[in-house]
Structures are given as structure tokens and as C-alpha cells.
Design goal:
This protein has about 150 residues and is α+β, with helices and mostly antiparallel strands. The protein has one domain: Pnp Oxidase, Chain A. It is built from three helices and eight strands, in the order βαββββαββαβ. Strands 1, 2, 3, 4, 5, 6, 7 and 8 form an eight-stranded antiparallel sheet that branches. A hairpin with a 3-residue loop joins strand 4 and strand 5. About 5% of the residues have low confidence.
């Protein structure tokens, strides 16, 4: 059975996951990249470093975000979020980063999962890329699911 997720189901899916895909455009090209995130019920929070995606979203803040949970080919959920990129500074950035750390830290299982940037200001040099904390303010959502029904 195919179906449409309601807003509560979409919010539950966004809260339950920590990996999603960010979609944005730059100079006529569309990009889709994986991200680790935390969802607070209104915004998707992300911590990263400056680069193509940040520069592109500064120029065009209209983005989309996709998250999914796939148990198997007959049992899955997928949500799309459309929203606006908002770069965070000072207290807002600290609060967002803390939300992300609290959500992701219990899931870390190895050193390769631990952030290498932005958390230890002593290690940040002038030559390295600057850390950026941002949120996507959710404006519109859509979701679908499939669930096999045994008759």
C-alpha cells in the first residue's frame, strides 16, 4: 500500500533520523549532498565548513532537504522539506550546535564519526576553512510511504 504521510508523521520521521540530503542550486547546477542534522520541530540544524554549499546558499537561500527510512523495498518512508537557509551566529549558533551534538553524540561509534572541525577552537587555524552553523527554516513538507499489507 502506498500512501501520503501527514505532518505529524513527517515530523516523527525528521526527528528519528540524523542523516539527510540537502538540495541546492548554484550557477544553473543542482547539487544534492548528504548531511548529518538535528530537527527541533521547526528547523533543521547543521554544522559544516565553508565551501561550495555555503557560498551557494548565501547567494540563493531556497533549499530542499530529503530524509528517508528504508526497512526494505516494501516498507519505507520518505519526506521532502522546502525551506530557507539561515546562517547562525553567536548564541544562536552555539544553541544550534549544542542541539546537534546532543542528538548525534549518543550515536557515535568510532573516531571517524566525531567532528573534526568547529568544536575545538584551539585547533582552528587561519588557513583552514571556517566552521558554519546554519538552519533550514521549514516552510513546506511532503511525504510518502509504502507498507506491505498481508491479506
Amino acid at each position: 500500500m502506498l500512501g501520503t504521510l501527514n505532518r505529524a508523521q513527517i515530523d516523527n520521521l525528521l526527528v528519528s533520523q540524523v542523516h539527510g540530503r540537502l538540495g541546492f542550486t548554484d550557477n544553473g547546477k543542482t547539487y544534492i549532498i548528504p548531511l548529518t542534522y538535528a530537527y527541533d520541530g521547526e528547523c533543521i540544524h547543521v554544522h559544516t565548513i565553508e565551501g561550495l554549499k555555503i557560498n551557494a546558499m548565501r547567494r540563493n537561500p531556497n533549499v530542499c532537504f530529503q530524509v528517508e527510512q528504508i526497512d526494505d523495498m516494501a516498507h519505507w518512508q520518505c519526506a521532502l522539506v522546502w525551506g530557507t537557509y539561515e546562517e547562525l551566529k553567536e548564541d544562536d549558533a552555539e544553541d544550534s550546535l549544542q542541539l546537534l551534538i546532543n542528538r548525534v553524540h549518543p550515536l557515535m561509534t568510532s573516531d571517524t564519526c566525531r567532528p573534526k572541525h568547529g568544536l575545538d577552537k584551539q585547533r582552528h587555524s587561519r588557513d583552514s576553512k571556517s566552521p558554519v552553523t546554519f538552519r533550514i527554516r521549514v516552510e513546506n513538507v511532503s511525504g510518502r510511504f509504502e507498507k506491505r499489507v498481508n491479506y
